[in-house]
Amino acid sequence: MKVHEYQAKEIFRKYGVPVPEGKVAFSRDEAQGIADGLGGYPVVVKAQIHAGGRGKGGGVKLAASNDEVGTLTDEILGMNLVTHQTGPEGKEVKKILVEAGQKIASELYLSLLVDRESACIVIMASREGGMDIEAVASKTPEKIIKVYVDPLCGIQGYQLRDVAFGLDIPSKAMKQFSAMLKQLYTLFVENDCSLVEINPLIITEDDQVLALDAKVDIDSNAMFRHKDLLSLRDLDEEDPQEVEASKFNLNYINLDGNVGNIVNGAGLAMATMDIIKNAGAEPANFMDVGGGATAEMVENALRIILMDQKVKAVLINIFGGILRCDVFAEGVVQAAKKTGINIPVVVRMEGTNVEEGKRILAESGLNLTSAVDLKDAAAKVAAAV
């Protein structure tokens, strides 16, 4: 689950991680009122969307007066902000963060994330703050510091020093930086985060450490442990079909292609998408209904896929095990009758009760195309689109 920058900074404050003074605003009047309460100018007006690169897209601007805050608020609120992370379609800005300006001596990069290969939490840091870390990693990887922390042991003093010395933190800021990094690690673990990122982390002219930006991603699979954080979820920032799918415990990700697919099992779903591409078509989604799917879940899966106007055909690929083929077939028939499918549907089934499943589909009176195997299914659905 992603959260907005202003929400991430609220979490930072709870853990004693220093951030600039500021508040979120939804209108010109709110923004100007917040700016007046910050004790001086300049102030920063920042678009709040779930994407990085906002500054390059015109979503982060400096205001030297209250009138300018109002002008910039009018420009940013409601704009369609396009960044390298939003894709060409962009995202509408519905809220802004108004913050006190800072006197910056240096900008750093700092993040914590899970490294599956080492089964550790890795601290990544660089003196090249304020830049795209991907560009730094590809062009000058030697400028990135990596410190691996065993989660069973927790972060140690020598690891805090390794990061601080690697970033060449001024001696006057060393104690504050180490305390901040330790709190960031605690925040990461206690909230089941998959990513905590500060870009830039700044050292001010008076040697204070400050998180000028904040990004927090929380593992969605752990949200049952963090019901207090559920209120931070912004459904406006998520794909409507993905939100709808989550209501029925369906694993769905919207893609750019034209072939919708319904599969039971994540590995089989990945293989299905690969073979669709190999046949010359493009998958429109990842949809895993799971091994224990019911007829109702199958019905909702098909309904959600048909919401996507890009979908010109559907490939259903089921390996019957826990989810029997006859149960799945009943779900397809129910869904087809309720949604009124008017695009080609190719079905490939194997496994438990497959003959009964095929009989249900054959006697349904629906215009469904059966496939012998997955290769045959992919070829038929590619021909259909």
UniProtKB/TrEMBL annotation:
Its cofactor is Mg(2+). Mg(2+) binds at N199, D213. One of its GO terms (molecular function) is succinate-CoA ligase (GDP-forming) activity. The keyword Nucleotide-binding applies. Pathway: Carbohydrate metabolism; tricarboxylic acid cycle; succinate from succinyl-CoA (ligase route): step 1/1. Keywords: ATP-binding, Ligase, Magnesium, Metal-binding, Nucleotide-binding, Tricarboxylic acid cycle. Coiled coil: none annotated. Residues 9-227 form the ATP-grasp domain. ATP binds at K46, G53, R54, G55, E99, Q102, E107. GO terms for biological process: succinyl-CoA metabolic process; tricarboxylic acid cycle. Its EC number is 6.2.1.5. Substrate binds at N264, G321, I322, L323. Binds 1 Mg(2+) ion per subunit. Pfam families: ATP-grasp_2, Ligase_CoA. GO terms for cellular component: cytosol; succinate-CoA ligase complex. It is an enzyme of class 6 (ligase). InterPro entries: ATP-grasp, ATP-grasp_succ-CoA_synth-type, ATP_grasp_subdomain_1, Succ-CoA_synthase_bsu_CS, SUCC_ACL_C, Succ_CoA_ligase-like_bsu, Succinyl-CoA_synth-like. It catalyses: succinate + ATP + CoA = succinyl-CoA + ADP + phosphate; GTP + succinate + CoA = succinyl-CoA + GDP + phosphate. Succinyl-CoA synthetase functions in the citric acid cycle (TCA), coupling the hydrolysis of succinyl-CoA to the synthesis of either ATP or GTP and thus represents the only step of substrate-level phosphorylation in the TCA. The beta subunit provides nucleotide specificity of the enzyme and binds the substrate succinate, while the binding sites for coenzyme A and phosphate are found in the alpha subunit. Belongs to the succinate/malate CoA ligase beta subunit family. Heterotetramer of two alpha and two beta subunits. This is Succinate--CoA ligase [ADP-forming] subunit beta. The gene is sucC.
